[in-house]
């Protein structure tokens, strides 16, 4: 799959990677930049973590993260691929 925290939940469900799954990965990179640590660094990267991610687990927004940044990040991490922003929308926000 790749590095578990950065893989979109739909990929774990057997779907092929898409632009939308890349947007999810970008959202996790955004979170890592705001937190200064790797996502889920406090737990094993195993099948239990995969199951939790597929059930909706997302890292919490870090205190002090600018609201526009956290809003975009959360949109990128949306469970529904079709609800994630496009690259063009991300570009306009940044």
Short description:
The chain is mainly alpha-helical and 94 residues long. It is 49% helix and 0% strand.
Topology readout:
Blueprint: H1 9-12, H2 19-35, H3 47-54, H4 67-76, H5 87-93
Helix pairs in contact: 2-4
Walk me through what this model shows.
Residues 1-94 form the Protein kinase domain. This is Kinase-like protein. Keywords: Kinase, Transferase. Pfam families: PK_Tyr_Ser-Thr. There is one protein chain. This protein is mainly α and 94 residues long. The chain has one domain (4-93): Transferase(Phosphotransferase) domain 1 (Transferase(Phosphotransferase), domain 1, Orthogonal Bundle), CATH 1.10.510. The chain has helices at residues 9-12, 19-35, 47-54, 67-76, 87-93. The mean pLDDT is 96.
Largest sheet: none
CATH superfamily: Transferase(Phosphotransferase) domain 1
Share of residues in helices: 40-55%
Strand elements, count: 0
- CATH architectural arrangement: Orthogonal Bundle
| Pattern of helices and strands | HHHHH
How many domains in all?
Answer: 1
Mean pLDDT: 96
CATH fold description: Transferase(Phosphotransferase), domain 1
Give the key terms:
5 helices; mainly alpha; Transferase(Phosphotransferase), domain 1; 94 residues; 49% helix
């Amino acid at each position: 799959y790749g590095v578990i925290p950065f893989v979109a939940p739909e990929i774990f469900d057997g779907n092929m990677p898409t632009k939308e799954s890349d947007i999810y990965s970008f959202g996790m990179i955004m979170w890592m930049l705001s937190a200064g640590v790797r996502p889920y660094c406090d737990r094993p990267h195993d099948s239990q973590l995969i199951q939790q991610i597929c059930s909706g687990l997302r890292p919490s927004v870090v205190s002090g993260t600018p609201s526009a940044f956290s809003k975009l990040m959360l949109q990128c991490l949306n469970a529904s691929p079709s609800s994630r922003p496009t690259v063009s929308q991300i570009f306009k926000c940044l």
